[in-house]
Amino acid sequence: MFRKVTMAVAALTLTAALAAGPVLAKPVVIKFSHVVAENTPKGQMANKFKDLIAERLGDKVVVEVYPNSQLFSQNKVLEAILLGDVQMSAPAMSVFGRYTKQLELYDLPFLFKDIDAVNRFQASEAGQGMMMSMEKKGLIGLGYLHNGMKQLSSSKPLQVPADASGLKFRIMSSDVLAAQFKAIKATPLKKPFSEVFTLLQTRAIDGQENTWSNIYSKKFFEVQPYITESNHGLLDYMIVTSTEFWMGLDDALRTEIKKALDEAIVFGNQVAAEKSDTDKQKIIDSNRCKILELSPEERAQWVEIMKPVWGKFEKKIGKDLIDAAYSANN
Ligand code: LMR
Q: Across-strand partners of 119?
């Protein structure tokens, strides 16, 4: 009797399963969280990645992009990746300090003269090696993405470093950036990107440093009367994922995802190059704030006062790495 019932149940289960059709494997979901607007180099790169994956991998992989700090701030996102709450992000180099000191290199003021120099360094063995600098902590870099060179925006005209003395500047959570502003006798405040507009608008802070595309897309230029075209530092990103997620993927799928990501990065870097000019022009055309240029003598003053910051971080970052990066300027 018992055997008969068991066999009947088994037969019913089989019939139900056949009626439901083949069991489809669930797609791999890649949640990509970032903090900037969609019309920025990073926003465009993430959307391109999503589109390429949808086109090529159809229902095997789905990329969901969450812009504008909708899910996590840059400071929280690395932890979220390790917990598996999101799978990818592209934080600024300035926020990796808890996981590796090597990436602080990118915050050193006046290290790279332009983006071509950054490209040369990143393509080198030393530059590529940095992407594995957090492997032991469970994170791996999948690629570099540029935004551009940083400018200084402020409520006061900043022509020489002495003009910034006593002012409060918002910075990302980087000790190098803190040292850079202390060097000019200003007060650095580590604050999330999502708070910058309000802090500037309410005059809780006097200024901040950022690229043309971030100043434009987040409307900082509407609440800052001056921008000094200082090009004093670089805002670059590393696309990161967790080792666990990445190595857990099927080999062929991983290769395809990486290929799409590489193409999206090339696209994002083109957007970055264009936006450095076009977003600057849009700010000029708005007539909302004055753009200050530096004479060679004024620029030399900023270099002279900020560059000694390198010495303070030489040990942590590694002198060899700093030398290799600096030599990419030639
Ligand atoms: C900032 O916090 O100023 C930037 O890093 C934001 C970004 O991701 O470009």
A: none
Can you tell me the distance from the alpha carbon of 77 to that of 95, in angstroms, rounded to the nearest whole number? Answer: 10
Which of the four pLDDT bands, split at 50, 70 and 90, describes residue 12?
very low
pLDDT digits (tens, 9 = 90+) for 137-194: 999 999 999 999 999 999 999 999 999 999 999 999 999 999 999 999 999 999 999 9
Query: Is residue 294 predicted with pLDDT exceeding 70?
Result: yes
The neighbour count for residue 119, using CB atoms within 10 Å, is 16
Q: Which of 144, 145, 147 to mutate to test the pocket of ligand 1 (most atoms within 8 A of CB)?
A: 147
* pTM given for the model: 0.91
Q: For the chain, which domains are there?
A: 28-324 (3.40.190.170)
Q: Which of 94, 193, 236, 240 to mutate for ligand 1's pocket (most ligand atoms within 8 Å of CB)?
A: 193
3-state secondary structure of 222: helix
Q: In the chain, which residue ranges form alpha helices assigned H by DSSP?
A: 2-20, 41-57, 74-83, 115-123, 125-129, 175-183, 196-201, 212-217, 243-247, 251-286, 296-306, 309-317, 319-327
Helix (H) or strand (E) holding 143: strand 139-154
Phi/psi at 128 (nearest 5 deg)? Answer: -70, -35
Q: What's the CA gap between 267 and 124, in Å, rounded? A: 21
CA distance 256 to 244: 18
Q: Is 293 helix (H, G, I), strand (E, B) or coil?
A: coil
Question: What is the structure's pLDDT at 58?
Answer: 86
| CA 90 to ligand 1: nearest atom | 8
Q: Predicted confidence band at 98 (pLDDT cuts at 50, 70, 90)?
A: very high
